[in-house]
Amino acid sequence: MSQHYSSVAVVGGGASGMIAALTAAEVPGRHVLLLERQQRIGRKLLATGNGRCNLTNRDAGPADYFGTDPSFAAYALTHFRSVDTQRFFAHLGLLTTTEPDGRIYPLSDSSNSVLDVLRFGLDRAGVELRCSFPVEEIQADRRGYTLRSGTEQVHAEAMILACGGAAGAKLGGVTDGYRLGKALGHRRSSLYPSLTRILTDPEYPRSLKGIRVQAALTLTRHGHVLARSSGEVQFTETGISGPAGFDLSRAVSFGGEGQMLHLQLLPFDEEAVFRLVQARQKQFPDLETSELFTGMLHNRLGRVVVKAAGLSAAAPLSSLSETELRSAAGQCTDFRLPVRGVDGFEAAQVTAGGLLTEGFDPETMQSKIHPGLFACGEVLDIDGPCGGYNLQWAWASGRLAGRLGA
Ligand SMILES: Cc1cc2nc3c(=O)[nH]c(=O)nc-3n(C[C@H](O)[C@H](O)[C@H](O)COP(=O)(O)OP(=O)(O)OC[C@H]3O[C@@H](n4cnc5c(N)ncnc54)[C@H](O)[C@@H]3O)c2cc1C
Q: Is 0.90 surpassed by the pTM of this model?
């Protein structure tokens, strides 16, 4: 039972740590201490969703998550669903709005609103905040946990490890949580950057830099499909980004050498695109081949597709053979980019991998090694796709950890 913990230290003032602290503080008389290594809490939260904070997703469910054992997340996610996140935040005073694709944002469209209501909530609940307090060492003894930062130390009967992951280094992503967990006897899996830019052969992306398209993406390796996604893709100097690209980055991280990215640039099959360009040839025989896709694709993209098909840009459409038209249609429905890897942790939104969940109880988030030690959020070996799923995991697991086994 939680009631016997009269003092709790939460390590990490990010999304999961804040909700865990708020939850732990619901028990009257309990002293809750929130320790944060940076000068203020919630720095990463402010940067989420491009400053809008996509705080959850209407459709988030256990089947959407990854990890060595993704089933670990099911209990937390089914006991604290996205409607519960909305309800929890409504109670703190936050209005939210759900976009047609299921992403949920603060109605103010500003992540500041999310952090503000959390800060006010922590203040009202009497949670003691200690910023610029990087926990460097934790010692477990019979009375609980002693946490040291430099020459200072604090003691608590129970503690919650909510240090986040290595992603978003500029926003404070560090590996402290893994190190602290390891020192307490927990093991971790390998760490990979996820929800990050995919690096490809840069020739075509470079000339398309800044263009956004809606596309269906397939990732293959030696002809085998590794993963698929669809949605917005943005071309960059070195490859692709955007939600649909981000969602494949995890598979790229794990996939090994020789991967290929296939982009379907129009929502039609090859035969349908062939018929479109054939009709276009009849309608505009004098048009330059470089303009074959004008009006169908972004004009720069259309020209690149023509180039990739090996067609002569200046020749009139009337000069194109059926084989050439089919080749152009094929490039449009299967535009290929050889994959070189992913951007590092600095640019990544989330860490794939973390403290192995086999060391924790999924119904309480309590360590199986140390009673009174709990963990939540990204430090654990659970991650989700783009679209509010990772914060939903942070809220759901943080809420559960904050109950301290009750
Ligand atoms: C740019 C960016 C955009 C994102 N956008 C979204 C989005 O829109 N929707 C979504 O669902 N997810 C998004 N994510 C992912 C999401 O932010 C994280 O998954 C989530 O914040 C994880 O919560 P957490 O509490 O586990 O870790 P964090 O929020 O990272 O918090 C961990 C905290 O612990 C502190 N800490 C670390 N070590 C110590 C220590 N030794 N002592 C004391 N404190 C310590 C850190 O400083 C940090 O404040 C985004 C991530 C990034 C980087």
A: yes
